[in-house]
Structure formats: structure tokens, C-alpha cells
Design goal:
Layout lengths: L1 H12 L17 E11 L3 E11 L7 E9 L4 E9 L2 H4 L7 E14 L15 E15 L4 E14 L16 E15 L10 E12 L7 E14 L6 E14 L6 E3 L13 E3 L1 E14 L2 E13 L11 E11 L4 E9 L2 E8 L4
Length: 357
Amino acid sequence: MKGMKAAVLFLGLGLWPYLIAQEAVDERKRSLSAFPILMYDMDIGLGFGGKAILKNALKMNESFDMMLFGSTRGEQRYTFIFSMPDFEIRQGTAYALAFDVKLDWNKLLNSNYFGTGNHSDNNEDQFPREMTKVKLTLGHAFTTRLIGELWARYAHYSVYGFKPGWIIDDDTPGAGQSGVSALSLRFRFDSRDSSFNPKKGIRAELQAEKALKMLGTDYDFWKTRLEFSVYHRSFFRSHIFAYRLWTQHLDGNAPYWELSMVGDGRTARGFKSERFIDNAMMLASIEYRFPIFWHFGGVLFTDAGRVWSSLSKFSFNDWHANWGWGLRYHLKNFVVRFDMGMSVEGMRIFFNFGHVF
């Protein structure tokens, strides 16, 4: 019943065209896509706010991406992204330099911690967590398909509100006040026909990140990530199959919120956020994307993944699988996403922006 209510709210938004500003113009001209947020989530309650992308307002092929969000159960999130050139404009081109800056503040009253390991016990313990992130990225496209990026990021977390007897306490790495400063190098092969709504192509990404003890932070670790995605049309040209394989490994001293994770709206959609965490993870996803009517599309999906203390302990046993369906609303500059995932641990509902992969 909760899932049906969320779907109705999602569909209802699409019937408000006067709230959605779009210009059907060439992508290098000024354009605006805006969407009101009104949704229901099992963890955060009734959510409200809005998201907008303004492209090429300064006539430099740049974009401003902004989101304001609040909810009845205490989540607040404010996100700002400036990109030059815009992601979609730079897609499939060889450019000398791209610059992105992202500012993100998120306060969640009902965050989770289940301990580490692939067999961690489920619990209902929830506590406040406040996050501030800053990320600066410089990119260079060596060819139209091969891109290199260097970025620096800083994240500060405030995790508090524990009760006696809970798994998490003040001695858990990442509890209380803590932060991470890191430098990353990423290489990407990208032959997709779109950065935010691909219908064909391949995306292969290799990233290495080093967290350093600087700017008042105390954690020191290496994190490596490999992600591979494929997109192709089915017998019907407007129906898309999308596949993803993602593996990650962390080595060193890290807070729990930096560990490899399976469980949330971008990994295993049938499980609670951060349900399974450890040093290493692997995840596989399949989506079947199809049009419904007007700007609406549908998705059928399945995800499966697990975590290990190290990738050297890899096995095909005890993977956590889920399945589900979703709705997509396509605007000129981004995609609105609603997903309902189901697993042996129940049903989860997610509302966000952009395809999962």
C-alpha cells in the first residue's frame, strides 16, 4: 500500500506540466529543466523540495545543478554542482579541460549501522548523521572516448545520538566528529550516446583514491574501484537493456561510512541503506528500460552483491539479491527516478534523480 501511494504521487507530478520548465532547443543554447519533489519514503516520510538544471546561461556551455530537499522525518539535503562544460555537452567530444565543483550538505535523522561483514544482523537502531562534502574535479578527454580525471574531496561527518546496547558507539571508527581528505585519479572509456540517459554504448571506469591525513582529518587509506556498464537496444529500438558490474576494495584505516557497501538506492535496492559493509564488495545489476507514455518510462531490475574483508576471499556463495520495478520521468537535462526493490528482508522505496547506472 505504501508503494502504491508513492507511485501515485510520482505519477501525479508528471501531470503538472506548468511546474516543469523545459526549452526544446539545441543543447548548446540556454535551457532549463526543473522538477518539484513530492514523494514518500519508508525511512524519511513525506519529502518535498525541487531540483533544477540551468544550462549555458553564461554562454560558456556550463551548467548549474541545484537541489533543495526536506522531509517530515527530518532529512534535509542541499546540493549544488557547477560544471564547465556541462556533462551532456562534453559527452562524446575531445576536450582540453573540464571543471566540476560539487557542494553537498545532508542531515539524516534516521541513519543505520549494522556492523561489518556479509552476515551482519539486521536491526532497527537509527541515529542522526550530518554530512558536508566538497569535491573539485579536473578532467581531460584524450579522445572522444578516453577521459582522465583528477579530483580532490573533503568530507566531514557528525554521527551522534547512540543509545546504550547499540552496535555503534563512540569507539566505532567514524562515530562522533570525523572527516576524510582524499585525492583521486580516474580513467574512463565512455562510448555512450548520452551521459544521463544512454541507449547504447559502453562505460568502463577505473579509479584509485588516496585518503591523506590533512585538513584536520585522521584517516589514511587506499580505495580502488572498477565499474563496467553496457547499454544496448532490444528488438524494439526504444527498449533498452543495461548491465553493470562493480567491484571495490579498501585498504587502510577508514571510517565505517567510507567502507565498500551493498544496500541502498544505488546498489542493492531491496535492502536498507548501508546494510552490508566491509573492505571489499562486488555488485551486479541488470535493468530493462522501456517507454510507457509521454515522458514516462518503466524499469524492471535485479541486483545482487556481497561484501568481503578482502577481494582475496571472493566466492559466489551468499550473495544478497533483490528484484523490483521503477518509473522514470525524462526531462531535457535529467531523469527523475522512482524504484521499489524487494528482497528477503522486505520492500524498499527510493526516489532520486538520474539512472542508477
